[in-house]
Design goal:
Layout: H1 10-21, E1 30-31, E2 34-39, E3 42-52, E4 55-67, H2 82-104, E5 109-119, H3 123-126, E6 138-147, H4 151-164, H5 166-172
Helix pairs in contact: 2-4
Length: 182
């Protein structure tokens, strides 16, 4: 018998799931990002603190993301566009889910690669056509997974990851978003 090690502590996740069943208030998390305008359409966004398990929490390190637009949009291209961060989030969340589910099911992964493509008609954000939405028209995720598993087992891994993905859920279901001036 071989031991599966995908680097995911599934027991800790299962223990947390059991503990939170009896303490739903502790499961209420608030994730935060703070963005600062630099110049033009260039901004930086930092993430460090969040609320969870009933108290303020902090990542080990502050992470900074740079957003801008490409030169073909008359910008300086100091970073990826904000809508591309959605693709980053989706890919990261689904990939984490694949690793976690594989670990829980005893499937050894050798490699996992996902390609996320978002088709976007920018006439919406430019106000060129009021019938065109501002966001993606559609998003496609394609996984290439090498693992000690059949194609059906790999497809089931991806399906379960999709089912449990917070980012997939946020992108595919209406979410209340409030924008205000402090």
């Amino acid at each position: 018998m071989t031991t599966t090690d995908n680097g995911v502590n599934v027991q800790a996740l299962l223990d947390a799931r059991e503990a939170l069943k009896g303490a739903p208030e502790a499961a209420q998390f608030t994730w935060r990002a703070t963005s600062t305008w630099k110049n033009g359409v260039h901004s930086t966004t930092t993430i460090q603190n969040f609320f969870g398990l009933g108290q303020e929490q902090s990542h080990k390190t502050k992470t900074e993301f740079t957003a801008d637009h490409p030169e073909i949009f008359a910008a300086e291209d100091n970073g990826i566009t904000p809508i591309e961060y959605l693709l980053v989030g989706l890919a990261g969340c689904l990939t984490a889910g694949v690793a976690s589910v594989a670990q829980n099911r005893g499937i050894q992964l050798r490699s996992v690669t996902s390609t996320v493509e978002g088709n976007h008609d920018i006439r919406g954000i430019l106000g060129a056509d009021s019938d065109v939405r501002n966001g993606f028209n559609d998003v496609k995720v394609t996984f290439a997974i090498d693992a000690d598993a059949s194609r059906e087992e790999i497809e089931a891994l991806v399906a379960q990851s999709q089912k449990r993905s917070a980012v997939y859920d946020a992108l595919t279901n209406p979410t209340s978003v409030t924008v205000e001036v402090a």
